[in-house]
Amino acid sequence: LWWLPESGLLAAMLALLAAACLLLPRGAPGRLLGLLLWLPLLWPQRELPSGPGALDMQVFDVGQGQAVLLRTAGHALLYDAGPRSRSGFDAGERIVLPALHALGVRQLDMLMLSHGDADHAGGMAALVASLPIGQVRGPAGMGQPLHGHCQADDHWQWDGVVFTVLHPPRHFPYLGNDASCVLRVDTAHGSVLLAGDISALVEQRLLRAGSEALAARVVLAAHHGSSSSSSGAFVQATGA
After folding, report:
1. What is residue 138's three-state secondary structure?
2. What value does the mean pLDDT take over residues 191-217?
3. What confidence score (pLDDT) does residue 3 get?
4. CA–CA separation, 36 vs 142, rounded Å?
5. Long-range contacts, stretch 145-150, CB < 8 angstroms, 24+ apart
6. Which stretches within the chain are classed as H helix?
């Protein structure tokens, strides 16, 4: 199959006009020129971030789980892969992968799994089987095969956007939710904080390490908004 990015309204209207042209009687002048009006469907606008420091963030609706796409001008990172349930429903295959196709994402530079629970890492296998992925990273000790681990103070820069891992520190034991990779993304227009499923205990540790690193314009609530996370002090420190 040849996957095409989702087209805009203008391209769809031009395609309908092209179909109307082709339905004209044979011999009608310019009838076959209607084929040219289908070209915008083949090369749709991808609406990528433009310029240094720009970021596009898409939070996919995967139900009880998480999958977040972060795109700079030339790179793409997926934070978590969506859930896979015991019934066999795989959000990585049914939701995340079609959404990536619709957005024109043909490969991922990185898949970062916050931790190994099925609602965050369950869709990994479907994505790895279907997309070229530069590297898969997650906390040390999780069961899934990884190319490398996320550790505090890891940082890199793509197209003027800076990515920094705040948690877990080196040699931190794998504790499931509380071992989640906490990722901070600094752009030219503000910061994003992705906290996985950490609890208030880890939030307190991050506060002791320095609340200035938590200040962000956008925060995705930890552990799906659980009452065991998003403590008052943490929320106040983010100022989101």
Report:
1. strand
2. 95
3. 77
4. 52
5. 146/113, 150/112, 150/181, 150/183
6. 9-22, 39-42, 91, 97-102, 118-121, 124-130, 200-209, 232-238
| Tokens representing residue 40 in the block | 């915008």
71 forms beta bridges with: 56, 76
pTM for the complete prediction? 0.87
Report the C-alpha gap between 4 and 100 in whole angstroms: 10
- Closest residue by Cα to residue 160 from 182, 188, 200: 188
Distances (CA, A) of 82 to 5, 93, 99, 168: 21, 9, 12, 21
What's the sign of the alpha-carbon dihedral 13, 18, 24, 27?
Answer: positive
pLDDT of residue 37: 86
Position 42 scores a pLDDT of: 78
Sequence-ordered list of residues with C-beta below 8 angstroms from that of 78, at least 6 positions apart, any chain? 67, 68, 69, 70, 96, 100, 108, 110, 111, 112, 127
Judge residue 150's burial from the number of C-beta atoms within 10 Å of its C-beta, 0-12 exposed, 13-18 middle, 19 or more buried: buried
- Token pair, residue 13, equals 């209207």
Cα gap 141→213, rounded to integer Å: 25
Are 151 and 168 in contact by the 8 Å Cβ rule? The answer is: yes
